[in-house]
Design goal:
137 residues, alpha/beta, five-stranded mixed beta sheet, 5 strands, DUF3052 domain-containing protein, DUF3052
Amino acid sequence: MKTAGYSSTPLARKLGIKHGNTLRLIGVPAHYFDLFADFPEGTSRPDSGPVDFIHFFTDRAAELEQLLPELKAQIHPNGMIWVSWPKKASGVLTDISENLIRDTALAIGLVDVKVCAVDDTWSGLKLVIPVSLRPRT
């Protein structure tokens, strides 16, 4: 069973990817799907429309600040955005930190609810629309 970071939890479970989810993947590393022991079947990656799950990898603050508002508009109200950035120990040059992601998210009405290790290079912060701001059904 493949796992990421220090947890024995499979990455798909850590990230909350489930059967039937619609996904949008942006800037993912070439080995992204190799990180999963068992990627959930029945997922799809539509070209347009809202999705359940976005995973956005970036090492640049300007890109984060430009794209995050656009990504928020692309998720279902109960959806999630994972923003991944290089860990300090990875040696990858970056101007992004967990605090910068959190501050950028809060400024556009998203909250962080979880952090995880994606692999040895990347961390991830899960962002969602607060329940109080989601449309009532």
